[in-house]
Amino acid sequence: VLLPCTVWMLFQPSPMQVGVALAVLVFASFVVGATRKLSDALEKAFRLTRQMERAHHISTRAAQTDELTGLMNRRAFYEKAQLLYAQCLREQQPLCALMMDMDHFKAINDTYGHQAGDQVLRQIGAVISASFRQTDIYGRLGGEEFAVLLPNTSLETARSIAEELIQTIHDLPADPVQGVSASLGVASTCTQPLDLNALMNSADKALYQAKASGRNQVAVVD
User: Fold this and answer.
1) Is the pLDDT of residue 61 over 80?
2) Percentage of the chain with pLDDT > 90?
3) DSSP states of 29-41 as a string?
4) Is the domain of 145 the same as that of 212?
């Protein structure tokens, strides 16, 4: 709107009109420069905001992820577990817990070295990640111990899943380590009302029962 009027006033005989036109041109150039600077500043601020959000996401994920296996760490697992337990309780769905521990893992480290032991744990993490649904929660609780929560799952189905997992681990090509195996305990809120801690403790007791019975097997809480 201003440009045609300004050009018209520049060619008028009145000095006042020419002066106004020049003032408008000066003002317009100032506005254009200020707008460009503001645009650059906003673009820079937006870029910095995106970088900060990305860095926050990476740091949050790193704080919740076990560095070796890529699974959730103990803290993240129990935070998610509390939410899942509350959801299952609210929707009156059964919840099954699986506690798994590698058999003779200390012997693996002592015989083949800690690098070989770490490689076995990475393979276990990959197996677990590929074996469960997106609605399931799984993580490494520490050392060679892992846990899984299966919402809306019957005890018999959880047992079958656990046995398949044990077999998959037993069939792992973990060269140079020979005879990789794991023991697993299963518990469920189907059999009796349990809070989350009691459920995990029941699965842990079943795990030790599996180990006491010879390892490389699944034990289920009655």
Assistant:
1) no
2) 64
3) HHHHHHHHHHHHH
4) yes
Average pLDDT over all residues of the chain: 90
Catalytic pick among 53, 67, 79, 144: 144
Cα separations (Å) of 148 from 121, 186, 194?
A: 16, 10, 16
What confidence tens digit (pLDDT) does each residue in 163-198 have? 999 999 999 987 888 889 999 999 999 877 789 999
Spatial separation of the C-alpha atoms in residues 218 and 117, rounded to whole Å = 22
**The CATH number of the domain where 143 resides is what?**
3.30.70.270
d(CA 33, CA 82): 55
Q: Which domain holds residue 60?
A: 2-64
163 is catalytic: no
Spatial separation of the C-alpha atoms in residues 151 and 189, rounded to whole Å: 10
